[in-house]
Amino acid sequence: MRQVRTAVLLAATLLLLTACGTEKTSSSPSTKAPEQALACEAEPSKPPVANGLPDVTLPCLGDGPDVRLADLRGPLVLNVWAQWCGPCREEAPFLAELQKKAGGKVKLLGIDYADPRRELAVEFAGEHGLAYPHLVDAEKAVQQPLKIGGPPLTAFVDGDGKVVYVHRGVLKSQQELDQLVKDKLGVDL
């Protein structure tokens, strides 16, 4: 009797493992953003701006060319994140919603920071609907210029390319992010 019960439990366990193990993979469309959705565009070269983004060039997480931060002008919301960062996961829905609401009034750019697993970063962006350009800063090149203690960090860049405000830490609500965009960039959503 004991051998029969063990055999039944073993068979049930194998059936359960088989059923759970093959349905969803990290490359399914629902969990992985196509790299084209994260594509970067070439920016015309511009002189660096006092109090602007650092003169650092970073590779694109998705398809597209490397991007020199000093070339960027706003209104721009630049978010420094990592897939391993819990607070980054908390604020990701607010950034995805901002992208929808902004309708071209505000650009968004992400920087995947100190992240050893590129494929998980692409998956993270897809899971959270962050379908705007993202750069990779595996070597922490922006750490000193932006004074990053750790992610998340959100910088607000005006039309002249000046960093007008830096929010350190997690954004706690959609209302907080929308208000920062209005107050710091002058854009009403």
TrEMBL record:
Keyword Protease in annotation: no
Signal peptide feature range: 1-21
UniProt keyword annotations, A-Z: Cytochrome c-type biogenesis, Disulfide bond, Redox-active center, Signal, Signal-anchor, Transmembrane
InterPro entries linked to this entry: Redoxin (IPR013740), Thioredoxin-like_sf (IPR036249), Thioredoxin_CS (IPR017937), Thioredoxin_domain (IPR013766), Thioredoxin_ResA/DsbE_sf (IPR050553)
Residue ranges of the region described as Disordered: 23-46
Domain Thioredoxin: 47-186
Primary localization class, coarse: other
Stretches with biased composition (Polar residues): 23-33
PROSITE patterns: PROKAR_LIPOPROTEIN (PS51257), THIOREDOXIN_1 (PS00194), THIOREDOXIN_2 (PS51352)
Compartment(s) where it occurs, according to its Swiss-Prot or TrEMBL record: Cell envelope
PANTHER family, per database record: THIOL:DISULFIDE INTERCHANGE PROTEIN DSBE
Name this polypeptide is given: Thioredoxin domain-containing protein
